[in-house]
Amino acid sequence: MDFEEVVEKRRSIRRFTDDDVPRDIIDRILKIGHKAPSAGNNQAREFIVVRDQRVKSKIVEAALGQSFIQDAPWVVVVCAHEERSASRYGGRGRDLYSIQDATAAVENMLLAVTNEGLGSVWVGAFDEEKVSNILDIPREARPVAILPIGYPAAEPSEPAKMSVKEITHEGMW
Known about the structure:
The longest helix is centred in the middle third of the chain and has 34 residues, at 82-115. By secondary structure, the protein is of the alpha+beta class. The chain has one domain: NADH Oxidase. A 4-stranded antiparallel beta sheet has the order 1-2-4-3. The chain contains 7 helices and 4 strands.
């Protein structure tokens, strides 16, 4: 697939087959995530890879019962390393740049997942404190996204989108 095809094909996948995904594919996805831009090249992001069913079950609880998370063979929790960014950029690094670094990695990973013929969904609805406790995330970092990754059990249709013209402003709002 060329890049535009990958972007067009990406969907939010919440149903997975029972097929396992080889670790080398997950490693490629993580590498693509790590290639995302970051403020000052601080790379203020961390990835936690989860396979253990008991841990995934606890993540489901922290994610407001979104059970499909446990159904995926792999779960990647993407964290913003707030203090790594704050050490260079102060409060703006902590509050904004670290989040941007992590979420840029998330988008790269979602596109890499699609390119590999896999599916995922960006889960943002979860209790940060609970996820941090479950995964022993240190105070200087913050979980910002949960990505369950596996082979899609179904391919959803394309959701309705506003036109680019509707959301584009020339010169100013």
